[in-house]
Amino acid sequence: MNVSETSAAALVARFLKARGIDRVFGLCGGHIMPLWMRLDAEGIRIIDVRDERAAVYMAHAHAELTGQLGVALVTAGPGVTNAMTGIANAFVAKAPVLVLSGTPPKRQENRGALQDMIHTDFVKPLTRYARTVREPELVLQELDQAVSAAFGHGGEPGPVYLDFPVDTFRGEVPKVLELPEQMQGRPRDKLLPDPAAVKRAVDLLLAAKKPLFISGRGARGAGPQLAKLLDRFDALYLDTGESRGLVPDDHPSVVAAMRGSVMTEADLIVTVGRRLDFQLAYGSPAVFGEAKFLRIGDCAGEVRDNRRGAAEIFATPSAALDTILEATEGKKGSADKEWASTARTKHLARASKLVESMKTAPAGKDGLMHPNRVLAALREALPDDAVLVADGGDFLSFARVGLPASTYLDPGSLGCIGVGTPFGVAACLALPGRTVVVATGDGSFGFNAMEIDTAARHKAPLLIVVANNGSWAIEVRDQQETHGKVVGTRLQFADHAAMARAFGAHGERVEKAEDLPAAVERALAAVKAGGPALLDVLVTPEAVSSDAKSGLAWVPDLQPLTAWDDAERRWRST
Ligand SMILES: Cc1ncc(C[n+]2csc(CCOP(=O)(O)OP(=O)(O)O)c2C)c(N)n1
After folding, report:
1. How close is the Cα of 445 to the center of ligand 1, in Å?
2. 3-class SS at 213?
3. Any idea which residues carry the catalytic annotation?
4. Is the N end or the C end of the chain the one with fewer CB atoms within 10 Å?
5. Under-70 pLDDT residues of the chain
């Protein structure tokens, strides 16, 4: 190898290894070759993908599922521009991802060199830290600082970016500069809550008649404390896509199927590590009425966005909840138990009605099966601890409510459809032994369909279920209802199973609901044997999902859903 052990590239590789990184997702190129080769020399596994965007999606999913740093390595110029959507998605999701790249040698800069771009100019707004490292001796310090920023030391977590001129990668670094303190780093300190803020929070909780907790990304790691608090205050609970599985579905506070009504009825809303974004009506009084807010989080974006709390605890959520538990030991709140138990009963009734109706959901006038039939067949066959990656428009909406999952990923609040297969590949590799299912619309599958090749080559035992309705269906419906004309939103009923087979995966097309159970069984057997499988299931585009009904695709002016938009208009005119 022509890149020495004392090169900056070797130091980057050793740094990553010292930080526990055992895999890097990437796509090769000359500008990053020194690092690519040194990663391999250090025994770091390279998951080589087919598009840089997928590499960042995979690093993102790896970070979300393991709590570790996700690392992507992409080449200069188009490698970085291709990675941009992945970076944007990690930025919005606050996922700790390190994206590494290269640039032309310093002595060719700005001379029209191959793949020469100032990447940091366009990466900066979507990262927590973005720099070009020109001096080999400063490599370690830059990496240390970037990784701290990725985990949100002193700010919000999210993606960070570093690139290196290729001659910097090849440059030598004196061994003495390999400082153990920078190699090892330190985990993020726990932020302890201010006692005065805790007192205000406790007063609110003790007085609340109808407390509703809503969790998000920042609540991960605080599940046990959350469950105890829900019990202590007879509170109700809603998760979001970011925090699914944190509190088990059989906990008596879980009322997911009653989301809309409990949001309007509660008198105290406790957000734990959750933004009040479009999924929560921006916390608007038009939807939440007179309710008070208690905000708990460790970054400003999850404590102060849109609605200020009557109490706000700026602290690590698990530490904040521990302190509240200690302060309320032996005390009981004033909750209206009747409210909570009625909501729970209705939730259970609705949830089981849905499961039953899914099994017999009627076909469309076109004779094609309802997407819920696919989900019903999967419900029957999947183990309880299956990992679900949902992707699509209508089909995402059906899958989100129709499939249980204690580990769940989806396009998130960026609405970044196309993440399905890359997220699924990373999930398989991060969680060996767990069954991973990607439930995706055909349009969404297309974005990164080539990653089926990555799944096959890396033996990722992934089950991909494509709900093939030959269209971007949620957009078709919006056009039909809002504009009376369908333009540019129909696809073809392409044979995705044939595509999967072309790359060595198990692939089957399913056209009839009665054929589903056996097809799912064969696909799961293929997955068990160690490779990816794809079921291309023809479904009707006529099935109307809850996201289509709620107006999400239509994008109203004031609120994301029609009912909330109407409520906001009424509230503003009072
Ligand atoms: C990258 C990106 N492009 C476009 C959109 C807009 N969009 C949201 S859902 C959707 C349709 C998805 O179609 P498909 O995956 O086939 O699912 P279906 O609605 O047919 O079930 C589109 C185009 C988006 N959110 N993200």
Report:
1. 10
2. strand
3. 475
4. C
5. 1
